[in-house]
Amino acid sequence: MNASDTPFRLEGKVVLVTGASRGIGKAIAVEAAEAGAEGIVLAARRPEALEAARDGIAALGSAVECVVADMTDEEAAEAMVARAVDRFGRVDVLVNNVGGAPFKVPLPDIRADGWRKTIELNLTSVFLASRAVMRNWRSAPGGTGRNIVTVGSSASFHGRPALSAYVSGKHALVGLTKTLARELAPSGARANLVAPHLVETDLTAAQQQREFRDRSIAQIPMGRWAEAKEVARVVRFLASDAASYVTGMSLLVDGGHES
Ligand SMILES: NC(=O)c1ccc[n+]([C@@H]2O[C@H](COP(=O)([O-])OP(=O)(O)OC[C@H]3O[C@@H](n4cnc5c(N)ncnc54)[C@H](OP(=O)(O)O)[C@@H]3O)[C@@H](O)[C@H]2O)c1
Prior knowledge:
By secondary structure, the chain is α/β, with parallel strands linked by helices. 42% of the residues lie in helices and 14% in strands. It has a single domain (3-253), classed as Rossmann fold. Helix 1 (23-34) packs parallel to helix 2 and helix 1 packs across helix 7 (228-239). The longest helix is centred in the middle third of the chain and has 28 residues, at 112-139. The mean pLDDT is 94. Bound molecules: NADP nicotinamide-adenine-dinucleotide phosphate. NADP nicotinamide-adenine-dinucleotide phosphate binds at residues 18-25, 44-46, 49, 69-72, 97-100, 121, 151, 153, 196, 198-199, 201-204. Keywords: Oxidoreductase. This is Short-chain dehydrogenase.
């Protein structure tokens, strides 16, 4: 069965994806378009990459709006949601995808500003976008079908040497997701987290030396890294009404690494 034939449809939904200009975020936006989303909002910092992503996604039939925004910036997060609401009247699904590990440094050598920036990128960004969307939802009641999907990591569940700030931010997203689930449940809205292990994208390009790949692949029962679309399909399931009774959950997409 082709992925676009699955029952996990997003027709009539407006989907906002942060960090959507490349990698997993772009794959999620493509998947949302293939699932029939009515409108898709793509957010990232660099306009050229966003515009390039827009062209491919719009060709799949969804209306697309690009928003240049730094997701660690409070005002930018509020303005992003306001733009989405101006264009489409609402946001039904927020995908918090922005994140990353800007450096690999043992804890005694981490500078405090580097720690703070990594926490801002991986945790505060999710707080800010979720708050902006939830404020809008509070002002426009009618929750069923609304949901938030956050992209965590296998580092949401395991320590990694020299990645303490990234790991701490990604672990915190599990608790944030559980709390959002409980705050949203009375309105019928949901919140879940998808936790990939290693995925073929620009973020991991620097790591793609043979030695690292061979070592990492030896630990993955399926013997390969994920493709971004394999993560995007899980986001699509959680975002769709097929997951209408799934909330507060973290779903590993790791080729059996945890097993
Ligand atoms: N790749 C992996 O192996 C892997 C594994 C586990 C988890 N993850 C998680 O998956 C998510 C996506 O990773 P990826 O590999 O797809 O990353 P990526 O290829 O580096 O793409 C990151 C995206 O986010 C945007 N972005 C970065 N910082 C931003 C900011 N401050 N504000 C707004 N947009 C920003 C980038 O565009 P601009 O630079 O133009 O802003 C880009 O669109 C992250 O949360 C990451 O931790 C990835």
